[in-house]
């Protein structure tokens, strides 16, 4: 079943399969790998129910199988998280249809989709892996990779929600569940791939959004502001995407401002005074 799309994997996942996946998520702090006897007993599954469900989950890639002290044991994968998230977003009437993958980053996979009112949406599935675990653990969350991934999605949703509520140029967040965030789809391309007609105007829109985030969201700054995370369309509308790592840290704010100013300086020879921009973004001027 390697070639199945995520939507197809969701479609073959059964009620009992979901129970098992949710159980694996729920027990994540206690066990990263859960023995068959614990799964079966906790969920009251017969031998046959367990066998059928676990086989299907293995085939869709939702779980992996290992052995603990001679006993079969399961652990959930990123695909497993994606499946539970998608089903739950559908049940909550946030996501009606899922389409192609439109972006695959280091720590996420982004799909195109449709809401129940047929608006186009982007669905970002977070994937904080064991590789990034070490680096991030002190910074954000003192737990395992599933918890970190779930935290990341929630944080991105909340950050988008605050900036959007205050009219910043970010995609409207529509909901989140498990490791996925659903937001408005923006038909634009990353800043680094295009030559904008009025760069002063685009820069002003970016800085205005940084100011909104600072002033109205309790000192929040993006934390990874770069021409990769700014999308622009033909009418020069701007969207700053990718907010899970946003922090309330002055060094991060200065780095964000420095990154964006130096990009506009290099590419468009626009020079702005760093300190003045910092004061503006902090709401002092
Ligand atoms: N709301 C959106 N509308 C349209 N496209 C989007 C949206 N959100 C994300 N994308 C697409 O998905 C890509 C990855 O999104 P994002 O930057 O949020 O994730 P990421 O994990 O940081 O990826 P990367 O590591 O490449 O930066 C974007 O470059 C963009 O092409
Ligand atoms: Mg990004």
Q: What is the overall shape?
A: elongated
Amino- and carboxy-terminal Cα gap:
58 Å
The main sheet comes to:
5 strands, antiparallel
SSE string, helix = H, strand = E? HHEHHEEHEEEHHEEEHEEHH
Number of separate structural domains:
3
Number of helices: 10
Identify the strand order in the major beta sheet: 4-5-6-8-7
Care to count the β-strands? 11
Oligomer: single chain
Q: Considering DSSP H and I runs of 4 or more, what fraction of the residues is helical?
A: 40-55%
CATH level 4 superfamily of the largest domain: Phosphorylase Kinase, domain 1
Instruction: Note the beta-strand portion.
Output: 15-25%
Give the low-confidence spans.
Answer: 136-142
The CATH class of the largest domain is identified as Alpha Beta
Family: Belongs to the protein kinase superfamily. RIO-type Ser/Thr kinase family.
Organism: Metallosphaera tengchongensis
EC number: 2.7.11.1
GO cellular component, one term: preribosome, small subunit precursor
Task: Describe the protein's architecture and organization.
The chain has 285 residues and is α+β, with helices and mostly antiparallel strands. The chain folds into 3 domains: 6-76, Winged helix-like DNA-binding domain superfamily/Winged helix DNA-binding domain (Arc Repressor Mutant, subunit A), CATH 1.10.10.10; 80-184, Phosphorylase Kinase, domain 1 (2-Layer Sandwich), CATH 3.30.200.20; 189-281, Orthogonal Bundle (Transferase(Phosphotransferase), domain 1), CATH 1.10.510. Helix content is 45%, strand content 19%. The protein has 10 helices and 11 strands. The protein has helices spanning 6-12, 15-26, 36-43, 47-59, 78-91, 130-137, 145-165, 199-216, 250-268, 274-281, and strands spanning 34-35, 63-68, 71-76, 97-104, 108-114, 120-126, 173-177, 180-184, 189-190, 230-232, 238-240. The strands form 3 sheets. It has a 5-stranded antiparallel beta sheet. A hairpin with a 2-residue loop joins strand 2 and strand 3. Helix 1 (6-12) packs across helix 5. The chain is elongated, with a radius of gyration of 21 Å. Residues 136-142 have low confidence and may be disordered. The chain binds adenosine-5'-triphosphate (ATP) and magnesium ion. Magnesium ion binds next to loops. It is an enzyme of class 2 (transferase). Its EC number is 2.7.11.1. Keywords: ATP-binding, Kinase, Magnesium, Metal-binding, Nucleotide-binding, Serine/threonine-protein kinase, Transferase. One of its GO terms (molecular function) is ATP binding. Belongs to the protein kinase superfamily. RIO-type Ser/Thr kinase family.
């Amino acid at each position: 079943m390697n070639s199945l799309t995520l939507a197809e994997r969701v479609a073959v996942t059964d009620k009992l399969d979901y129970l098992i996946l949710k159980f694996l998520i729920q027990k994540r702090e206690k066990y990263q790998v859960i023995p068959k006897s614990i799964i079966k007993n906790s969920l009251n599954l017969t031998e046959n129910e367990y066998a059928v469900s676990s086989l299907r989950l293995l085939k869709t890639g939702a779980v992996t199988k290992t052995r603990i002290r001679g006993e079969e044991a399961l652990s959930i994968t990123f695909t497993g998280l994606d499946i539970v998230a998608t089903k739950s977003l559908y049940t909550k009437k946030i996501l009606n249809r899922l389409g192609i993958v439109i972006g695959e980053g280091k720590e996420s996979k982004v799909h195109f989709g449709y809401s129940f009112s047929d608006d186009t949406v982007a669905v970002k599935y977070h994937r904080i892996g064991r590789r990034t675990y070490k680096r991030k653990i002190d910074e954000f969350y003192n737990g395992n990779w599933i918890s970190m991934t779930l935290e990341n999605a929630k944080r991105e949703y909340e950050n988008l929600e605050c900036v959007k509520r205050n009219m910043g140029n970010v995609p409207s967040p529509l909901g989140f569940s498990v490791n996925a965030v659903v937001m408005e789809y923006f038909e634009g391309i990353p800043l680094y791939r295009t030559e904008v007609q009025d760069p002063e105007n685009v820069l002003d829109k970016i800085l205005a959004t940084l100011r909104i985030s600072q002033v109205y969201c309790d000192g929040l700054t993006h934390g990874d502001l770069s021409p990769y995370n700014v999308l622009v369309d033909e009418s020069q509308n701007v969207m700053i995407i990718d907010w899970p790592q946003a922090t309330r840290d002055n060094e991060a704010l200065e780095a964000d401002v420095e990154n964006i100013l130096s990009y506009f300086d290099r590419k468009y020879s626009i020079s702005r005074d760093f300190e003045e921009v910092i004061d503006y973004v902090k709401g002092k001027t």
